[in-house]
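Reply to dn_fold:

You asked what the input looked like. This is it:
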Amino acid sequence: MIPKKKKGVRSGPDDAPLGAALRARGLRLTHPRRIILEVVLGTDVHPSAAFVHAEVRRRLPRVSLGTVYRNLRRLAAEGLVQERTEPEGLRFDGNLAPHDHFTCVACGRVFDVPRRRVAPPPLPASGLQILSHRTEFLGRCGACRRSGLPLTPHGRHCHGR
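and this is what came back:
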């Protein structure tokens, strides 16, 4: 995780690699951008922009959701975080190492799982070129399995309503 920088203090040696990576992409390491990165890199919950916004507002109360969202999208476009499209919207992942995901169909939590080498499928002579793949495992996490709550036909917990 990136250490917290005191207000009015220039970037220290801990910010140097991140600042260099941003400058190489034509971006500055602004205070809001650094805090946004701290939040995404400091969690394994694959946060939404709203989650990141709520966490950033603890340190920057006046930051807008739009500012957080624009910075997240820019950081993803520059390859500093990964963007995941989910049925509920975009989520962000600070783990840049090759990996796959396990999504709990009961609570919606997303877990990183090691990527296994997968042989590419045979492609017909259609001009298709595989650049990458994404494997998503679906199931129930340990906490949801232990809870014993029944699932709805759509996979979410049924709370008797």
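The chain has a mean pLDDT of 81.
Hope that clears it up.
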